[in-house]
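Minutes, structural biology subgroup

Action item carried over from last meeting: produce the structure token record for DNA-binding response regulator (Flavivirga aquatica). EB confirmed the sequence was re-checked against the source entry. Recorded below for completeness.
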Amino acid sequence: MNKYLVIETEEYVINKIKNVFDDFPEYRCIGYAHDYSESMDIILKEMPDLIFLNIDTIIDRPFSFVNEVKQYLKKDSEFIAISSSKEKTYEAIKTGFFDYLLNPIADLEIRKAALKFKKKHPIKINKTICLKSYKDYQYLNTDEILFLRADNNTTDFYMNNGETISAFKTLKTFENLLPKNFLRIHKSYIVNKNHVSKVSYSTLNCTIKKSSQNVPFTKTYINNVEYMISTLSQSPALRLN
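Output recorded by EB:
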């Protein structure tokens, strides 16, 4: 999951960026900042991978600010400049900005920037998830997880060896941590699509390999279900009459 921060005062610009990035599930917005102190505080707490910065109006010396925060950020974190003119392009390049967007920003340019960043920084798939309970740490191989079920503020992990492991976190917490083969298909369920053997629209449930339980899905998450079907099918489905 790539985290991004927007340092900007214009609400329409913020909304444009967020609306485009909502199409990319691998990106998560960690907030918006409007001045030096607020920006620095979020950056030090969240360590974003990508930062949009209005270099015209937000911070008096934006390039000095970028050089300062680079001391704390990961080496592969990137900055994208937002400006109403091309006057500062050279200085932005010298400072190491990843991209330069001109106001008024077009959705297409934001989308291009997102895809360029994604290509340069592909997400490494994490095959291990850590469940912490007090001073105990349990590590699960995500390939061995069949599905997750929410139970109030706890989440049950159903494993391919028949074991059920509980964690004292909400389902939403794990939705943001798990690899992209895990899909939310119900308010109470996340399924590992690699273990799905059948999807039934008549009963609104999925059959899971190595499990006697079926996992339900709802129309609220039908886009995820259809995405799962399309990715599991290597060729067009054959209808049996």
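Discussion: DSSP finds seven helices and 15 strands in the chain.
Next step: EB to file the record with the rest of the batch.
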